Amino acid sequence: MQSDLDIICVKLDSHIGNLSNFYATGLLTQSNALGNEMKKQALFSFTEVIEEDVRYAKIALELDGFVSLVVKFLDSTEEGIRIEVTKAVSIIAGLIPGKNALLCGGIIAPLVRVIESLKSSEMSKQYATRCLMKAAENSDNSWAVSAHGGVTALLKICKNGTKYGSELVALACGVLKNVAGVEEIRRFMVEEGAIFDLVELAKCKDEASQIFSLDLLQSMAFWDESVRRIIFKKGGVRVLVKILDPRSLISTKMRAFALIAVANTFISSENSIDLLLNICFMDHILYFLRHGEASVKELALKASFWLCGIAEEAKKAMGEAGFLPVLLKFLNSKSMLVLPKNQKRFMQSEENIGFLLRLLNPENTNSTNKKMLLSILKSLMSNHTARKKLTSSGYLRSIEVLAEYELPDAKNIVKKLSTFNRFRSMITRFLNHHHL
User: Which of 284, 247, 293, 278 is nearest to 263 (CA)?
Assistant: First the structure.
């Protein structure tokens, strides 16, 4: 039974391959004789076959003159043909040999012409842009895209983004993101007013267009400090922070994206901190630490950490805004530090235990925070490294003072450390005696 099925599958596979070869060969040999409707139907049938299984595209690629023919079809004035051929080449470009063959056949220029043409439908523009995005994955091809006017054509789509569907805008941003890795092309984009246009696109109501425009801005800013400054000047960061406003009707996904964009790209210098403080960024972070969903809350924690590392001014502002009690509650979460893996991760940084102990200075911490901090420290006492670091840190006296105030967790910590030190002394004496 199984062998019969295998034979049938092989025959079907061969039949579909023959169909692919038939349609491709028919187009090659009869293209001049076929009318537009027949060409469109042949292209439709060919695309249907290779869409089912892209392996059959390889059969067509082996035929002499096939690539030249499909490249020629891209300049057809018949929109039906243009849609089918752009769809076909977008599929073929998904194969490395197919993409290479199309590039060698000079496909970039006609693809750009499809995108530029006022007569091209949005669908053919989408397929052409998708193919161009695959081609522009290589920096050498980025130059070809730019040389044939592709960057300018794609920027026009972004500038008029509200006139197009979000899929075409997304694809245009994707190609531009690929080519923006080349410094000269990135500068050209800036000179052409891309920053302003993308910031304006980010203000639209379509969430997908917002995300892709902001992603492109973030990518451009990542490579270049001067671009970051222009984005600040053109209001890009204000758009991101506005998205974070808890009062705005924005999805969690969009808020998370905006928070990542600000944290990864724009919390980078003291110059950026002044603006972020002035446009309520810190207030929004504090809100999400208190009330945000889990995913947004985690990102808000990361943003808080990065803010602390930039400037003393940011630390001071965070203290005045009331960040410390909120952050301490996170640290006090039993779900975090009772786990051995989390304890080990916490202890990997020399600064963590020191920071915790400095906060426990009896003169600097109120009674509520003392209890939180001692609870955290107590949860770490099952970790050998934590006990060792605390013993040698010079802060042990602070814990002893707190124990004298009859704080249970402080007394428990001192007791555990005392036991630990006695045991360590016994081992040391034993080893010294054995050595002698």
Answer: 284
